[in-house]
Amino acid sequence: MLEKFRQAKMAEIAHLRQAASQGSLASPKPGPSRGFASAITRKSHPGPLPVIAEYKRASPSRGIICKSVPVDMAALQYAQAGAAAMSILTEEQWFGGQFAYMAQASAAFPADSPLPILRKDFIFDPLQIWQTAASPAGALLLIVRLVPGASFLRSLIGQAESSGLDCVVEVFDMADLQIAREAGAKIIQVNARDLDTLKVSRQACLELARNGRPQAGEIWIAASGMEEAIHLRMAADAGFNAALVGTALMAEGKPGASLSKLLESRN
């Protein structure tokens, strides 16, 4: 599946290269951190763990999840329900996303409580980072297995951080974790979903945190299969600092209410 995801981005990257050659690609400005990392580690959030609430319309494993809730409505509901940050899938072919969703979400947040936005997509080209840095995003996702090695990953992280973007570096096993650390990743996201079978193993996710032992200065995020408060508690006990939750919040078409229920549950 990962190679299919890569191929789905090639036309977009070709478009970015053409825009760059014509001088029409929006220019990001260097600046300080946009606050994603600090937001997901703040101690004042409700629930067992700070939650990065995701806007996710579809996925390869579930098909259509929810297309009845516009992104601006989800953004407002997530902010009001206590999300630490918002993840927005911008990949179009497999996940029904759009790059424009980030600007729409940003405009919808309450003025006194905007959420930092994580751009979740398949990013492996410097122009994708350039494009993201010119958007309202505060962070972007980099998947270890999408890049050729630690050196290239390090260069992408450096490029993003120079524009104020935090990098969430996704791993699936100890080999990925070693590459992420060699590249200087500060935010580690462990995906519990096997990329070949698309099945979820929360236990494997927890074991990686226990065996990998989060190091000083690292922020760890548990992703995929986080559906109930007990899952958040187990992740916290294993050493995770935050959890990314998508399908469980979107499936019933009431993302804000679903997030409130998850954070308030005593289970």
Structure characteristics:
globular, 12 helices, 10 strands, alpha/beta, 40% helix, two-stranded antiparallel ribbon, 267 residues, eight-stranded parallel β-barrel
Task: Provide an overview of this structure.
- The model has no long low-confidence stretch (mean pLDDT 93).
- An eight-stranded parallel beta barrel has the order 1-4-5-6-7-8-9-10, surrounded by six helices. The chain has a two-stranded antiparallel sheet with strand order 2-3.
- It is built from twelve helices and ten strands.
- Helix 4 runs parallel beside helix 12.
- 40% of the residues lie in helices and 16% in strands.
- It has helices spanning 2-8, 10-21, 36-40, 71-81, 101-108, 126-133, 150-162, 174-182, 202-212, 229-238, 247-250, 255-264; strands at residues 51-55, 58-59, 63-64, 85-89, 117-120, 139-143, 166-171, 187-191, 219-223, 242-245.
- The protein starts with a helix and ends with a helix.
- With 267 residues, the protein is of the alpha/beta class.
- The protein is globular and about 55 Å long.
